[in-house]
């Protein structure tokens, strides 16, 4: 088995610390003038890929780590961040600002890149915090006919073919084994992503970003789903105080909870 070729999809999303607001037309979340950053789950994927190389946890080593993003021109910012964290180079499929791409289309783009770049392992976040759909990794594994392990909290290797992935389940943990090539989706307990140092940020500016379009990869981005309306959740009502257990029970009965 040769050294690993790892693909890490990353997405530019509204920063996790920003409270999103629905636009006036109620068609989407307002993104103009809002701080964006790399999807947190994708940061975990980059970090884990770099750790596999640094810790030499895979015998033959890591040949290359490629970051991929499908997004507007500003998506190059998260690709530069990924390269500053340790990715070797990047691929950017550019779309118009404000254009949305469905998970199945992203999975098809990734499939094309996997085949073009002879990828052995795809390490992607379990979901993006904007759409919260959590579908791309599973769809990609299905399109490729590869094994998959989702919501990884620990990744280790057994020989040159087998991958052990541990994940949290209700009441404990579950460990699954699969063979390379495969798709892994990452969860928050997997690692603590590093901060990109200034020297690495400067080095990332010299690393290569291959720009291409969906048509270059033979993928049609036509949407199959239409968002009808987006509304904010109703404001939470204030709680009430009760004097004792009997008062609590009476209140629960009044609310129809008992």
Automatic annotation (TrEMBL):
Organism (species): Phialocephala subalpina
GO MF annotation: an example: electron transfer activity
Keyword Electron transport applies: yes
Cofactor(s) it depends on: AMP; FAD
CDD domains: ETF_beta (cd01714)
Pfam family, one: ETF
The protein's name in its UniProt record: Probable electron transfer flavoprotein subunit beta
Subunit structure: Heterodimer of an alpha and a beta subunit.
Alphabetical list of SUPFAM superfamilies matching this protein: Adenine nucleotide alpha hydrolases-like
Positions of the Electron transfer flavoprotein alpha/beta-subunit N-terminal domain: 26-221
């Amino acid at each position: 088995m040769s050294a690993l070729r790892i693909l890490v999809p990353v997405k530019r999303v509204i920063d996790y610390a920003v409270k999103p607001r629905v636009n006036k037309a109620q068609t989407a979340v307002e993104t103009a003038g809002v701080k964006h950053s790399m999807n947190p789950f994708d940061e975990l994927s980059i970090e884990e890929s770099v750790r596999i190389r640094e810790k030499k946890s895979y015998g033959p080593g890591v040949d290359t780590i490629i970051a991929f993003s499908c997004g507007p021109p500003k998506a190059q910012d998260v690709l530069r961040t990924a390269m500053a964290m340790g990715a070797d180079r990047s691929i950017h499929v550019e779309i118009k600002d404000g254009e949305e791409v469905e998970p199945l289309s992203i999975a098809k783009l990734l499939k094309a890149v996997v085949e073009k770049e002879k990828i052995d392992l795809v390490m992607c976040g379990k979901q993006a915090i904007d759409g919260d759909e959590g579908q791309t990794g599973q769809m990609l594994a299905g399109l490729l006919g590869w094994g998959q392990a989702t919501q990884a909290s620990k990744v280790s290797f057994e020989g040159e073919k087998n991958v052990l992935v541990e994940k949290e389940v209700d009441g404990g943990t579950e460990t699954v084994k699969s063979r390379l090539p495969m798709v892994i989706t990452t969860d928050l307990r997997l690692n603590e992503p590093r901060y990109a140092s200034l020297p690495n940020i400067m080095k990332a500016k010299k690393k290569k970003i291959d720009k291409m379009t969906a048509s270059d990869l033979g993928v049609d981005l036509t949407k199959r789903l239409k968002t009808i309306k987006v509304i904010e959740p109703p404001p939470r009502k204030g709680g009430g105080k009760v004097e004792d257990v009997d008062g609590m029970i009476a209140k629960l009965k009044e609310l129809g909870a008992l």
